[in-house]
Design a protein that fits this description.
By secondary structure, the protein is of the alpha+beta class. The chain contains 4 helices and 4 strands. Helix content is 39%, strand content 25%. A two-stranded antiparallel ribbon has the order 1-2. Helix 1 runs parallel beside helix 3. The chain starts with 5 loop residues before the first strand and ends with a helix.
Length: 101
């Protein structure tokens, strides 16, 4: 993993416990990004992995054409390690229709 790819976004205390948020910038459908995602989850073993993908698209990750998705790699690695996965993004279909109005 190259230096500078992983950043601490915020560090704060919640209920007496320190919280850290890490952000990994990726290039979609990149072998390097898939390896970075896998390495980051394996090394940090966070409580939760947040994927910037809406629930509808998350359901489509199992399709064969998505086998090289960094989202799929992150979900698979988190699941393997017993880490919760949270999806969060706007629904692209709704945004598409909204922008057409």
């Amino acid at each position: 993993m190259k230096r500078g790819k992983m950043e601490v976004l915020c560090r704060r205390t919640v209920g007496g416990d320190r919280s850290r948020v890490f952000l990994l910038g990726v290039r979609h459908r990149s072998e390097e990004s898939r390896k970075d995602v896998e390495t980051l989850v394996e090394i940090l073993r966070p409580d939760t992995v947040f994927l910037e993908i809406d629930a509808l698209r998350a359901c489509l990750l199992h399709k064969p054409e998505n086998h090289d998705s960094e989202f799929l790699v992150a979900r698979r690695e988190a699941t393997r390690l017993g880490i919760d996965v949270v999806y969060g993004d706007h629904n692209n279909l709704i945004c598409f229709f909204y922008h057409k109005l």
